[in-house]
Design goal:
The complex is a heterotrimer of chains A (985), B (496) and C (398). By secondary structure, chain A is of the alpha/beta class. Chain A has 25 helices and 41 strands. In chain A, strands 1, 2, 3, 4, 5, 16, 17 and 18 form an eight-stranded mixed beta sheet that branches. In chain B, the strands form three sheets. Chain B has an eight-stranded mixed beta sheet with strand order 5-6-7-8-9-10-11-14. In chain B, strands 3-2-1-4-15-16-17 form a seven-stranded mixed beta sheet. A two-stranded antiparallel sheet of chain B has the order 12-13. In chain B, helix 7 runs parallel beside helix 8. The chains are: A alpha/beta (985), B alpha/beta (496), C alpha/beta (398).
Chain lengths: 985, 496, 398
């Protein structure tokens, strides 16, 4: 929930419409209504208070209220950054170079206004990305009085509205930087038409004394702007401007580095009674007490510049190397300090750096928020979170002064001014990262990290360790325990109740599609991978696929298809046990041989240069077509022989393949069968819901019964099984079925290939126009894709002919290569041994399914099987052993044989953790049980390249728990699949 | 370069020499279509120009043709009002003065009558041009409105001493702050100086009289001279005492600007400059006489311009391509569209070499969704109004100056050429005789090489046929008087 | 595993990339323009082009094939010039291409859907150029149209410029590259081809590799694209062609080719014209002289039957783009049809990719440009671009 809102808000907010709390009525227009911003921790900075689980209520760019118990107006939009986010006031940079320009040629030029040089139309992305919302504008450097400084907001309204203070200070310096003033000529020689002839004269200052003298003279000039001598010294306009500024109580902000300079300034300020702010103040540590006593605030500029070559600090004994403990000492002495870095972007880092020497975090945070606001005289609007102040927020993904913390969002005047998401480009380079920090991280293969951290990026696990890198803008989640997503080693989730038995070359992938509400619920319980197999298998076996119930995109949906082939060894007639398995293995061996030969041939073969000229290609195509013809025919035959049981299907296929030989569109015999899709518009701001209708016409070419199903999360959380009728004359379709919200009636009309549908669910009418995106009906029927696939080949002459792909033997071949598994259903000890032997002979280590009597032959099969999927009985009670109960899972594992938990159900999958917990309660090792649910299951089914462990490179399927895994009392708090959080529904 | 110079002079000569037939005489222009830019187009129309001004526009059958008029044009042509260039810094020798504040400068001293620019203007059909100092200044000199013909500035001048150039875009070597400082100081200095003068007048009136008596000067005469310079008393309060003559020429122009004698052309490079510019002109009370010359992304400040209600001249590329500093995406903005949506009066300008021709700019505007008349107004009527020449040029109406283009087709089509340019009743440009244009179009063969064979460099066929038409047209118009001749000619035509 | 997922993706509902574009005029280029016709796009290819047609998903005034620029200039950049040798035929631009450059996007917006990327022309024989799409996933695999489309060469001042003559003083550069004169450049050129024919120095694998490429050029498999700006360069290039019997020669940046009608006709070369300038002049940075490109150069070539392509050299601003060059050419008297062909089909033919791009024909890539008026006129603008069926510039968005 929280995470979803977070996502929505961050994207929507910049456009001005924030995500409303679920069911909280329509979203209010931007800026107008109330906005409630939430985060786990909120630093008010004002009187150092820190609230947890509090809310900031914002309206019209101002903070209305802050606190844990803020009463929300009904129409308030809630933006919740989640329990792990931290909000601090928008940072205030007491130094910036946004307005920095050429210094005037005079030593003092108060008329040079920084505001003139600040471009309010510029987007200050750098500062905003550092959480900085207000900045001091330095007019120029290297002058005694370089000009008049200002303070502005870095986003929000334009022009005047952005100005916090037009005259924040008279900015200058008395240190070395101020002594490079050019000798000032009045006028420059040669004389020009616009300035009279004058004479050259060097300007003050060249020393600290000179600086103090000059300051004194300037104050005199301010007192008497017409003093001829001073006017000729400092220019005609300086006096008036100074007088005005001083009258307006504009402070002098002067940079002084060494203790001496600082002392001199303090003395001067005290004597002439002018408001003073110390700038830079590298050497202030030594004179901290005097500064505090004088009550002069300090803007400490860090004497270290990032992204710059290092500076020579001096070799002599007495060379002054800057120390970074100055702020700490000043604060201790009781002086007001603001910390600034060389660029606003790095203000947080600067604060961190400056908290050397024992400056505690609270003070450091204050030194980049409220303290500068006060020193710059804009505290009434910014610097802390208090009702009435501007809603400038800096949202962080961790403790403000933790070294790896970065900014999640920057708010100015109650609007989101910057978020890292805005970087997301179309080609999805640098997608948003997630970091999970827990006390206990279970890798899955038994290893445990305490504490542990995990970095998720682009759907994969990037780093695992005690401390991992935190990319800027990463979402950070903190918690107790995390473990890999659990694997249902053998279940039926996704079959949607179907009991059909497809052939082994049927790709189960075709019946799955992502985003099913039900599947998501399962995943939410912690089952992130399901090894799917039909409920029962024919003699030739059944396909087995591994998929992720919660995956949003198709490419994440399938883990492996086929993941394994499932065969039955046992036969009611014992003599026949294992026959067909042996048979298949034999076939498979030859088949594999063919392929090996082909691959060797290919390795040798050198492809000819690509045909540049057209005509040859033509021929090629013809050839290809011809070849293809043969192959497809061949396929047809192949199928017939293999599908004796499913004859009616064959008819249908024929009729369909006839239809394929293109008759004109309108007279299409079967205009219904296939997959129909549309977007069902939803009330704003929710995105339109996908509507997928799968239908099958009983008899092509005439009005006939229609069966099918419909999935649309907006209409029903579950799949709706349909039955109905298609009227060929009226071209109307009427279907009805039961969904999670009760009876669903669906009437459709066919208009030039499109299906205009009305659906009635508990009284409400929904309309949509469906388009047919595929002509296959594949819920559990045989897919037609086999034939389509064979349209690709177009090979140059001489290329070794590729052996025909046999869907049935493919899994076995891959099992032999070790890239897939072979699951054999076998119970009795004798059979187990035979089966294992047979398989090993074929170079396969099988996965035994059931294996009731495995405990009798543990030693014999140890190391010869990939693993065992024991039956659902965790605790076996046997009369002859009395209360000495057996726990097959434990036994097998102790014998060094991998086990995993098969659910053999659909939604039942969620019972698995409990089953494991129960096994643990009965003596199985908890660590072993965890392995069985994750790493071992993955390993035995050969999908450990994708899932099963928390290791770099693997899919980011992660569970966050509130306690130790496999403790019955522990529950899954949050779950991620392929890096995306699975939301509760 | 060299090889291009000769024809240039030749052409200039050709321009300078007024065609004998038209001295003071009347000119009739016939066209298959007349785009008047004032009401609907006229099919098959006729324009009569007398003494440099249009005396009649209308359908050929309705407008009576003076017997002694010279007739040009014909059915194949489209007549169009001469384009108006609202602001340019070309056609001068060195456009920028490096003195920050130099209102005392006068463009007339810098305009080069034989500059390639003016010649090119004719080719593009620009008949009225406002030349102002370059943008690299704080306060620039005074400009002038010229017509692109004549061998001397006097011949060219339409409005001497027109407009004064200011710039809020930082001059070379200045930062934004120092630029604004300098601009404010310019006006501050003026005020200080004037106050000083008034003081002086008050205190020294008696002394001056005695002084004058002693020197035998005649104060009345000086006063008269002052009045002569500026006519009436100062419009700026408190200056009645100061005779204009006594005013230092360095300050006079700026004062006249404050009086509203000149339009202020304020150059803005960035949206921020727009804000500054408006601030300054408001402070000086000359908002009403201000025109902003905007570049690049100044459109971002469109709201401010709109609320200030000042017209703008769009210099530089019409399509602003910018990179969003946060997302890094490139965003394209078609500036005229923005200005139009904000209800800002704007003229297009031909500074950007890629989009020199006004016709081309108008075309671009249409391509980006502006309607035709609005787009064309932006290169005719609007600039005319901005220059205060609303009732002189910018459309073909009775009483306006006879600045007419004869185009080979729709003036906005890429294949259309300006065939004839008439300025104030004088035929000043004929493409057929434009050597340089021929070179631009067909290339220059190095000296001594054989001239291109007809197949290669013959005039493009459509143009050929136009000329035929033109003659034919001319014959018909010549009409009743010389029937005999006509018949022979017609035979010839038939013969062709 | 991927093997198994691929067919899945193929089975994805293709809906979002299928279009039916209705246009007042469909300029097929390969055939006559069709008044109010349609183009149907399916699975990234053109499914059908015809008259009438209904159920349009996109509508516009005119639709043309995606434009093709043979001198886009997004090459490996002037800094990546092969210093080891002046003949680097074996190198390929593909190895130094920045597919993330925003300039691709820019080209795409201005209607250019296919482009030729070449090594910078500072080497006499610079290496292999490749044809690729200007959009799509930023991987070579995804964008490649033809990996080895041409061999890049340069005649004239450019290659020799900046090459230091050895001096008896401390060198500013490690390499003293030759040639240092125009003659030198031509010599290197001739030597390369001469050695190839003689099979000289092929014990050196690098040289052997170079010669292999040059042989393909001599065999006519690869066109030779030579930068030849001035008249003398044009002549030199053509003489070389005739001396060594190079079947497919394309003169790039041929500012003054128009001065040599007879040679052009005789030798059957093709020409890539540089952008037109306001005053017809093209300053040459290396020789203090400016070459002249008349407005009707394109028309001349057209009338002489010399195949030619127009190029924009990445003109970004309004008025400088490829479409604008085609407009300028019309101002020079080139008929619309020819102008359109010069930015679509002709360039495609020159590089032998006309089977995939260059015209609107069923089966070709669905690279389309949608206009809000008659194409290549200043009064109309590109409002939509489709790249292989994907809508990269949406005419419906304002």
């Amino acid at each position: 929930m929280s995470a979803r809102l977070l996502g929505l808000a961050l994207v929507a907010a910049p456009l001005g419409l924030l995500a409303p709390r679920a069911g909280d009525g329509p979203p209010a227009p931007a800026g107008r209504g109330f906005v409630a911003v939430r985060a786990g921790t909120i630093h008010l900075v004002e009187d150092g208070r820190v609230l947890s689980g509090a809310t900031i209520l914002v309206k019209d760019g101002k903070i209305q209220a802050v606190g844990a118990d803020v009463a929300l107006p009904p129409d308030a939009l809630v933006v919740d950054y989640g329990p792990d986010a931290v909000i601090v006031p928008g940072l205030v940079a007491a130094y910036s170079s946004y307005a920095l320009g050429f210094p005037s040629e005079r030593t003092a030029d108060p008329t040079l206004s920084a505001l003139d040089a600040f471009d309010t139309y510029r987007v200050n992305g750098d500062a905003l990305s550092g959480g900085v919302t207000s900045a001091y504008l330095t007019p120029a450097d290297n002058r005694l009085i370089a000009g008049t400084a200002a303070v502005v907001k870095l986003a929000g309204q334009r022009d005047a509205a952005r100005v916090l203070s037009a005259e924040a200070a008279l900015h200058g310096a008395i240190d070395a930087s101020a002594r490079s003033t050019p000798g000032y000529w009045d006028p420059p020689i040669p004389v020009m038409v616009d300035v009279e002839l004058g004479y050259a004269r060097p300007q003050l200052p060249r020393t600290t004394m000179g600086a103090i003298v000059a300051l004194g003279e300037l104050l005199d000039l301010a007192g008497d702007p017409d003093d001829a001598r001073l006017v000729s010294e400092y220019g005609p306009r300086t006096g008036l401007a100074l007088a005005r500024a001083l009258a307006a109580k504009v402070p002098l902000r002067l940079a002084a580095s060494d203790a001496e300079e600082i002392r001199a300034l303090l003395a001067f300020a005290a004597e002439r009674r002018v408001p003073l702010v110390l700038d830079r103040a590298e050497g202030a540590g030594a004179v901290a007490d005097e500064i505090a006593a004088a009550g002069v605030p300090v803007v400490y500029r860090l004497p270290w510049v990032p992204n710059a070559p290092a500076v020579d600090r001096g070799k002599e004994e007495d060379a002054r190397w800057p120390t970074l403990d100055v702020p700490a000492r000043l604060v201790k002495a009781g002086a007001r300090v603001a910390i600034t870095g060389s660029s606003p972007r790095d203000l947080l880092f600067a604060a961190r750096l400056a908290s050397r020497g024992g400056l505690e975090p609270a003070a450091a945070l204050r030194a980049i928020t409220l303290a500068p606001a006060e020193i710059l005289g804009v505290a009434q609007r910014v610097g802390s979170l208090r009702a009435g102040k501007d809603a400038d927020l800096c949202v962080l993904n961790g403790d403000p002064l933790a070294s790896s913390t970065s900014v999640l969002a920057t708010w100015v005047d109650g609007e989101v001014a910057w978020t890292p998401d805005r970087h997301a480009r179309e080609d999805a380079r640098g997608s948003r990262a997630t970091v999970i920090e827990v006390e206990e991280l279970h890798v899955g293969d038994g290893e445990v990290l305490r504490p542990g951290q995990l970095l998720i990026q682009d759907g994969r696990i990037r780093e695992v360790g005690a401390r991992v890198s935190h990319p800027r803008g990463a979402t950070v989640v903190r918690g107790k325990t995390c473990m890999p997503g659990m694997i249902d080693a053998f279940g039926h989730l996704g079959l949607e109740g179907s009991r059909k038995v497809p052939g082994t070359d049927f790709t189960l992938a075709t019946i799955l599609d992502p985003g099913d509400a039900l599947d998501r619920r399962v995943a939410r319980q912690g089952i992130t991978t399901v090894v799917l197999t039909p409920r029962s298998a024919s003699d030739s076996g059944a396909p087995v696929a591994a998929y992720k119930p919660a995956a949003r995109e198709l490419e994440h949906l399938m883990v492996a298809d086929p993941a394994a082939l499932r065969l039955r060894w046992d036969d009611p007639v014992r003599l026949r046990s294992g026959q067909n398995v042996r048979g298949l293995l034999a076939k498979a061996r030859d088949y594999r041989q063919k392929w090996l030969e082909y691959e060797q041939a290919m390795a040798k073969w050198v492809p000819p240069a690509e045909p540049a000229a057209e005509p040859e290609k033509k021929e090629d195509e013809k050839a290809a077509d011809a070849k293809e013809g043969q192959t497809s025919e061949a396929k047809e035959e192949k199928k017939e022989e293999s599908d004796k049981k499913e004859d009616k299907k064959d008819e249908k296929k024929d009729s369909r393949s006839k239809k394929k030989k293109g008759e004109p569109e309108e007279l299409e015999p079967d205009p219904i069968t296939g997959l129909w899709q549309a977007d069902l518009p939803q009330p704003e701001p929710a995105a339109p819901a996908k509507l997928k209708l799968r239908a099958k016409l009983a008899r092509a070419g005439e009005s006939a019964a229609v069966e099918g199903n419909l999935r649309c999360d907006a209409l029903s959380a579950t799949l709706i099984e349909f039955e109905g009728w298609f009227d060929r004359e009226a071209r109307t379709l009427t279907l009805s079925g039961v969904g999670s919200r009760g009876w669903v009636e669906l009437t459709g009309e066919l208009k030039e290939g499109k299906l205009a549908v009305k659906a009635r669910v508990d009284g409400k009418e929904h309309e949509a126009t469906l388009e047919r995106t595929s002509k296959e009906y594949v819920v559990a029927g045989r897919s037609e894709r086999g034939t389509e696939k064979s349209e690709t080949p177009k090979e140059p002459k001489g290329k070794p002919r590729e052996p025909k792909l046999d869907g049935k033997l493919e899994p076995l071949r891959r099992a032999m290569d070790g890239t897939a598994a072979l699951v054999v259903e076998v119970e009795r000890a004798r059979d187990i041994l035979d089966c294992v032997a047979a398989c090993n002979e074929a170079g396969i280590r099988p996965v035994l399914y059931g294996a009731r009597e495995a405990h009798l032959v543990l030693e014999q099969i140890a190391g010869k099987v990939a693993g065992v999927l024991p039956a659902s009985t965790v605790v076996v009670a046997e009369a002859e052993r009395g209360t000495d109960y057996r726990v097959p899972y434990a036994e097998l594992q102790n014998a060094g044989i991998r086990v995993a938990f098969p659910s053999e159900a659909e939604e039942g999958a969620i019972d698995l953790p409990l089953r494991a917990a129960y096994a643990v309660a009965n003596g199985m090792s908890p660590e072993g049980a965890l392995r069985a649910l994750t790493a071992d299951a993955a390993a035995m089914l050969a999908i450990d390249g994708r899932v099963g462990r928390l290791a770099p490179g693997l899919d980011a399927d992660v569970l966050l728990l509130d306690g130790p895994p496999l403790d019955p009392a522990t529950s899954v708090l949050r779950a991620w699949v392929a890096g995306e959080e699975v939301e509760a529904h | 370069m060299k090889r291009l110079l000769a024809p240039a002079l030749l052409l200039a000569a050709l321009l300078a020499a007024p065609l004998p037939a038209q001295q003071g005489g009347r000119l009739v222009i016939e066209a298959g279509r007349i785009v008047t830019q004032a009401g609907p187009d006229i099919e098959n129309g006729r324009i009569v120009i007398d003494g440099g001004r249009i005396t009649a526009v209308g359908k050929a059958e309705e407008v009576e043709k003076p017997w002694d008029a010279t007739v040009i044009g014909g059915k194949a042509f489209v007549a169009f009002p001469g384009f108006v260039e609202a602001h340019t810094s070309q056609g001068m020798d060195r456009a920028n003065e490096n003195i920050d504040v130099a209102p005392f400068l006068d463009i007339r001293d810098s305009i080069d009558p034989v500059a390639y620019f003016f010649e090119d203007c004719l080719r593009q059909g620009i008949t009225t041009i406002n030349v102002q100092q370059g943008a690299n200044c704080v306060v620039g000199g005074r400009g002038m409105v010229v017509r692109p013909i004549g061998m001397t500035v006097e011949e060219m001048a339409m409005r001497p001493l027109f407009g004064l150039k200011l710039s809020t875009r930082p001059k070379g070597g200045k930062s934004r702050a120092t630029q604004m400082q300098a601009l404010r100081f310019a006006f501050e200095d003026l005020r200080l100086y004037l106050e000083g003068l008034v003081e002086k007048e008050r205190d020294d009136a008696g002394y001056a009289k005695r002084e004058a008596l002693f020197q035998g000067r005649d104060l009345e005469a000086e006063a008269a001279q002052g009045r002569a310079m500026g006519g009436t008393a100062w419009k700026v309060d408190g200056l009645e005492l100061v005779p204009r003559g006594a005013l230092d020429e360095r300050y006079a122009p700026l004062l006249e600007l404050l009086e509203g004698r000149y339009t202020a052309f304020v150059h803005c490079g960035d949206p921020l400059d727009v804000v500054h510019a408006l601030e300054v002109v408001r402070a000086q009370g000359i908002l009403a006489r201000t025109v902003l010359v905007i570049e690049q992304d100044c459109w971002k400040a469109a709201d401010r311009i709109a609320e200030a209600g000042v017209p703008v001249i769009l210099e530089g590329a019409l399509l602003d391509v910018q990179r969003d500093p946060i997302t890094g995406e490139e965003v394209e903005t078609f500036v005229p569209k923005v200005l139009q949506e904000k209800g800002i009066r704007f003229a297009l300008s031909s500074e950007d070499p890629n989009t020199r021709a006004p016709a081309y700019q108008a075309a671009l505007a249409i391509a980006h969704g502006m309607e035709r008349t609005a787009a064309l107004d932006a290169v005719t009527r609007v600039p005319a109004e901005i220059l205060g020449l609303g009732d002189e040029v910018g459309s073909l109406e009775r009483g306006k100056l006879g600045n007419v283009l004869l185009c080979s087709g729709d003036p906005l089509s890429v294949t259309t050429w300006v065939e004839h340019v008439v300025i104030e009743g004088r035929l000043v440009y004929e493409r057929a005789k434009d050597v340089r244009n021929k070179h631009l179009l067909e290339g220059v063969q190095p000296l001594g090489t054989a001239p291109p064979t007809s197949a290669e460099a013959g005039e493009d066929p459509e143009h050929e046929h136009e000329k035929a038409d033109e003659d034919a047209g001319a014959e018909k118009d010549a009409g009743d008087e010389q029937k005999g001749k006509d018949e022979d000619k017609e035979k010839e035509d038939g013969g062709r | 595993m991927l093997l198994l997922i691929a067919p899945l993706l193929a089975a994805l509902p293709p809906g979002d990339d299928d279009w039916t574009i209705q246009a007042a005029t469909v300029h097929t280029v390969s055939g006559a323009p069709i008044e109010n016709g349609f183009v149907r796009v399916q699975g990234g290819k053109i499914a059908a082009v015809g008259k009438g047609g209904g159920g349009a998903t996109l509508e516009c005034a005119a639709v043309t094939p995606g434009l093709i620029d043979l001198a886009l200039g997004i090459d490996t950049g002037p800094l990546s010039v092969e210093q080891s040798s002046e003949t680097a035929a074996r190198l390929s631009a593909s190895d130094g291409l920045d597919l993330f450059s925003y300039r691709w996007e820019r080209a795409l917006r201005s209607g250019i859907t296919t482009a030729l990327a070449q090594p910078a022309d500072y080497d006499v024989i610079g290496g292999l150029g490749l044809v690729l799409k200007t959009g799509g996933a930023p991987t070579l695999a995804a964008r490649l149209v033809k990996p080895e489309a041409c061999l890049r060469g340069a005649i004239g001042a450019q290659p020799s410029n900046g090459n230091a003559i050895p001096r008896f003083q401390e060198p500013q550069t490690f390499y003293f590259r030759r040639p240092t004169t125009r003659m030198g450049v031509e010599w290197v050129f001739r030597k390369a081809f001469h050695d190839t024919l003689q099979g000289q120095g092929e014990d050196d694998p690098a040289t052997a590799a170079d010669h292999a490429v040059l042989r393909r050029v001599l065999a006519g498999e690869l066109p030779l694209v030579v930068q030849a700006k001035a008249t003398q360069d044009v002549r030199t290039a053509i003489y070389l062609k005739e001396e060594f019997g190079i079947p497919r020669l394309v003169l790039d940046h041929a500012i003054e080719a128009w001065r040599e009608p007879e040679l052009l006709k005789r030798s059957g070369v093709a020409v890539i014209l540089p952008p037109f300038t306001a005053d017809g002049r093209h300053a040459d940075g290396f020789v203090n002289d400016s070459y002249f490109l008349p407005l009707d150069a394109a028309r001349k070539l057209h009338e002489w039957g010399v195949p030619f392509a127009l190029s924009a050299h990445e003109g970004a601003g309004a008025g400088a783009r490829l479409a604008d060059q085609a407009a300028a050419a019309q101002r020079g008297g080139l008929p619309l049809a020819a102008a359109l062909e010069a930015v679509t089909l002709t360039p495609a033919r020159l590089l032998g990719v006309e089977a995939r791009v260059g015209s609107l024909e069923a089966g070709k890539d669905a690279d389309l440009v949608l206009w809000n008026g008659p194409p290549l006129q200043p009064t109309s603008r590109i409002i939509g671009v489709l790249l292989q069926g994907r809508l990269v510039l949406d005419p419906r968005s304002k």
